[in-house]
Design the sequence.
């Protein structure tokens, strides 16, 4: 059985290759489907904002012998009939009850009702009130920080890699990761708290880091690509993705394992809390960031650059050299540049996809270099004038 190290070595040396760039339509389709599902979840279910964003009153009852959620909801409704109470168990023996805004009198009565329902002293129950304005301030500052982050990241990537097209591809990958993470929150129904916002901002850095690593390898492989006739730009970029694939997988697995442990502990052992809120965003964001840096960012970069005149000319030289060497398998569709989908007529870097048979026909139409004359086609006669053709 081949080892994973051997597999990675084959990918790095080019003995084995996965066509990430050539199958970009498939990856784009998967990404678009995931984005549509995310927007659909946001439209149908919406996010579940925490009390920090919607405002309201919160009660915490520690060291409860029987931490049931029904008792807390009944206690709130006994004071405020018809009130919506969100009851959650934290750490196995503590209860958190969240309601809409209550008056001071209602707060005291709910505290007494909760103490009676759970058999604890009223002094042990803590109550607090959070105004909705605080949540709006957090949201506005988070959006402002996100906007500044994207602008600065775009400038840094454009200056570092000396092309704005890498910045565009990286930002598209980041947007994909954010939308997908938000959509998962809408589907699962986890509360969106300030810790969740911190998780959203954190995954941007991780996703960007993975994308920049791949782009750096792409730049290394394509630094003098216009003077080379060995690979097209798309092929060199695809090799870069293959060379960094094992590293991306290993990095993601190493990052996901502790995050998954935190998510399990926060969600199932400790109950609702900061750990659960931030770990889900990190888990989904890291997984989506790995996918986007491999399947979205690099193929999009190739698509943005493959029609540049110098890359078109270089791709033509690569194809011409392969025709002369006879390395084009007959009947296969050969992309001139980065390559369209194999087996289709999608334009490549030079704006066309040629068949190897058609390319070979261009050279076969010329007399061979050995001095032999071409044989006439069967069924034709030498010297026959067009006007004397038999009908």
Sequence:
């Amino acid at each position: 059985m081949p080892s994973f190290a051997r597999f990675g070595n084959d990918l790095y040396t080019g003995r084995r290759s996965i066509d990430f760039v050539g199958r970009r339509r498939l990856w784009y389709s998967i990404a678009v489907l995931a984005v549509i599902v995310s927007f659909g979840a946001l439209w149908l279910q919406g996010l579940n904002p925490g009390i920090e964003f919607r405002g309201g009153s919160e009660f915490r009852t520690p060291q409860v012998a029987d931490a049931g959620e029904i008792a807390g909801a009944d206690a709130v409704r006994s004071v405020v009939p018809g009130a919506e109470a969100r009851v959650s168990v934290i750490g196995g023996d503590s209860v958190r009850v969240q309601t809409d805004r209550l008056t001071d009198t209602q707060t005291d009565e709910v505290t007494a009702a909760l103490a009676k329902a759970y058999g604890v002293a009223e002094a042990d129950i803590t109550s607090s009130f959070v105004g909705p304005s605080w949540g709006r301030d957090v949201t506005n500052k988070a959006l402002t920080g996100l906007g500044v982050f994207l602008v600065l990241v775009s400038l840094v990537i454009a200056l570092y890699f000396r092309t704005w097209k890498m910045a565009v591809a990286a930002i598209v990958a980041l947007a994909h990761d954010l939308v997908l993470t938000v959509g998962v929150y809408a589907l699962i129904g986890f509360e969106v708290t300030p810790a969740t916002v911190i998780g959203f901002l954190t995954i941007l850095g991780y996703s960007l880091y993975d994308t920049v690593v791949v782009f750096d390898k792409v730049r290394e492989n394509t630094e003098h690509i216009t003077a080379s006739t060995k690979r097209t730009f798309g092929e060199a970029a695809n090799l870069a993705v293959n060379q960094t694939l094992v590293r991306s997988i290993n990095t993601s697995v190493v990052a996901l394992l502790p995050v998954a442990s935190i998510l399990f502990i926060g969600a199932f052992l400790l109950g609702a809390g900061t750990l659960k809120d931030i770990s889900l965003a990190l888990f989904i964001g890291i997984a989506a960031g790995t996918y986007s840096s491999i399947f979205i960012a690099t193929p999009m970069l190739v698509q943005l650059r493959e029609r540049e005149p110098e890359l078109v000319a270089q791709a033509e030289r690569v194809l011409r050299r392969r025709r002369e060497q006879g390395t084009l398998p007959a009947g296969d569709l050969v992309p001139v540049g980065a390559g369209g989908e194999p087996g289709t007529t999608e334009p490549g870097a030079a704006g066309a996809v040629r068949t190897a048979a058609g390319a070979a026909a261009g050279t076969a139409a010329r007399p061979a270099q050995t001095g032999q004359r071409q044989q006439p086609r069967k069924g034709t006669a030498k010297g026959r004038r067009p006007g004397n053709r038999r009908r």
About this structure: The radius of gyration is 31 Å.
